[in-house]
Amino acid sequence: MSFEPRSFWQNLKSHIAPMYLLYGEEDFFINEAIGLIEMAALGDGGRDFNYDSFHAKETTVPHILDVAETLPMMSTRRLVIVRDTDKWNESDWSQFDGYLSHPSDTTVLVLIMKGIDKRKKTHKRLLDVATAIEMKKPYDNQVPQWIQYIAQKCRCKIDPDAVGLLHQLVGSSLADVYNEMQKLSQYLGDHQTITAKDVISVVSNIKVQSVFDLSRAIGDCDKARALLCLSQLLSHGQNEVGILALVSRHVRILRSVKNAKKEGVSGAQLASKVGVSPYFLSEYEQQARHWSEKKIEKTFRALLDTDRALKSSPISSHIWLENFVIQTCG
């Protein structure tokens, strides 16, 4: 099943499983789930003596098992978190096999990994014995509602224009949204309604400029500037697949703008229909004039080919991305 905080909390209140498997790319969801499990398992007073967190390759499996099988102190449960368990090899998992068959009934064990490979017997077994929850990144059209959720979590309110702008500048990573929301919360002080002006003032300049400039350069078909922006993104550790997703979103918006304009939609209604902040609408409209339907379809095919290459080719992913920019902006 996928993660939804409210329903997950309701399930925890009725039943806490002895073992959870949290897998996926969205770190914000993983941290939310851990916080809720901790609250349900330990309450307010049990953390000091009954909470342990490990990274799989930094601690031996026997030590983790010893901790998991230790009785809780002044509490009914112990909570043990083990991150990066996809880095365990078969030997590590074989040491864990006995615990999977007979988990401690006084410990809540949480195993965390990036992905599940159902071809592996161990992973298939984990799905059978643990309560497994997929922490996949939300779809692009779901991000605004999660921005509202994160604002509430940070005890803030955020107006609709600011939601759209934050989404545009930060992207779809909720972990990144949460980091920026914390900055905004500290920046606001007693003024707790986030506006678009606040977002522009606070969101990290390096991130805004690199991400926004890459999109704009590709939209303008400015090959030299796009290659420079790509180089900056990669040098700052930006995920290659994430870069491709960003470009794909930008091209989808250009297509939506063209289609909506054909229907006679304009102004605030156009911004709402295509899902962008009014602050950026005019730029999208200008770029869309220079993107024919043929160019858009050709770019989508190139995006698909590049995505496949990033996930399967032994050739450097940087080269595939550079080739995509050259092909698209040529």
How would you portray this structure in words?
With 330 residues, the protein is an alpha/beta fold. The chain is globular and about 65 Å long. It contains 17 helices and seven strands. Strand 3 (78-83), helix 5 and strand 4 form a beta-alpha-beta unit. The chain has two domains: 5-134, Rossmann fold, CATH 3.40.50.300; 142-329, Zinc Finger, Delta Prime, domain 3, CATH 1.20.272. The mean pLDDT is 89. The chain has helices spanning 5-14, 27-42, 47-50, 61-68, 90-101, 121-129, 143-153, 160-170, 174-188, 196-202, 205-219, 223-235, 240-262, 267-274, 278-288, 293-312, 317-329, and strands at residues 19-23, 51-55, 78-83, 107-113, 131-134, 157-158, 193-194.
- Count of helical segments? 17
Coarse shape: globular
Strand line-up of the largest beta sheet: 2-3-4-1-5
Mean pLDDT: 89
Parts with pLDDT < 50 across at least 5 consecutive residues: none
CATH class descriptor name of the largest domain: Mainly Alpha
Q: Indicate how many domains the architecture comprises.
A: 2
The SS-based structural class is: alpha/beta
Largest sheet: 5 strands, parallel
Name given to the CATH architecture of the largest domain: Up-down Bundle
CATH names the topology of the largest domain as: Zinc Finger, Delta Prime, domain 3
Distance between the termini: 44 Å
Rg over CA atoms: 23 Å
**Helix/strand order:** HEHHEHEHEHEHEHHEHHHHHHHH
What share of the residues lie within helices? 55-70%
Tell me what portion of residues adopts beta-strand conformation: 5-15%
Number of strands: 7
